[in-house]
């Protein structure tokens, strides 16, 4: 049960169609022939599911909204308890996040945050700590482990999300006035774009769906 006086966040998570998602991870599955495509899609879904499950379990989170046109992604996150909305206007990541944030606010959200969908080592407590820290500012963000990208962008009540994800997004978010959050949250900052990132996330400890998938020796990222 959440204390009424503490700010609760609506978290928006973007998820592309599986056919075009996470192409930098395909070296992990390209040697598996026809089965490789299916394995790649399972991996993308597992990363998403672990991220969404951790967010839903965070005390500071009122709900998770996944922006996607991918029926399998919608089914997986829906079963976990997330809401979904279609990817409109289908003009890339920032447009999808704007759409999700607007939808969340139309349906009652005040504080909204965009969270990367590729954080399989995310711990609910780190997300809560980051959101609590963000509540001190109109807009705030958490940079990724490399310091160049962004894994979390937060907009408090009345502030536009104004997402600037993409190349060098940490610099772009800071330039737009969002405050960088300095906490030690390794799982929150460990986005998985490459096989090396997946190995780093595995060292932190993956969520259950990614762990199950990678327990198959064909997959072992260690
Ligand atoms: N809904 C939605 N999500 C998107 C879109 N573009 C990117 N995303 C999601 O945003 C997250 C970050 O995007 P990227 O890092 O560019 O991921 P990606 O394009 O899947 O990965 P690569 O192909 O390896 O570059 C991923 O989880 C994507 O699924 C979009 O147009 N719509
Ligand atoms: C889109 C971004 O990152 P990535 O491509 O690493 O997911 C970002 O950090 O803004």
Automatic annotation (TrEMBL):
Transmembrane segments: none annotated. It is an enzyme of class 2 (transferase). GO terms for molecular function: GTP binding; phospholactate guanylyltransferase activity. InterPro entries: CofC, Nucleotide-diphossugar_trans. It catalyses: phosphoenolpyruvate + GTP + H(+) = enolpyruvoyl-2-diphospho-5'-guanosine + diphosphate. One of its GO terms (biological process) is F420-0 metabolic process. It holds the Pfam family CofC. Signal peptide: none annotated. Keywords: GTP-binding, Nucleotide-binding, Nucleotidyltransferase, Transferase. Guanylyltransferase that catalyzes the activation of phosphoenolpyruvate (PEP) as enolpyruvoyl-2-diphospho-5'-guanosine, via the condensation of PEP with GTP. It is involved in the biosynthesis of coenzyme F420, a hydride carrier cofactor. PANTHER family: 2-PHOSPHO-L-LACTATE GUANYLYLTRANSFERASE (PTHR40392:SF1). This is Phosphoenolpyruvate guanylyltransferase. The gene is fbiD.
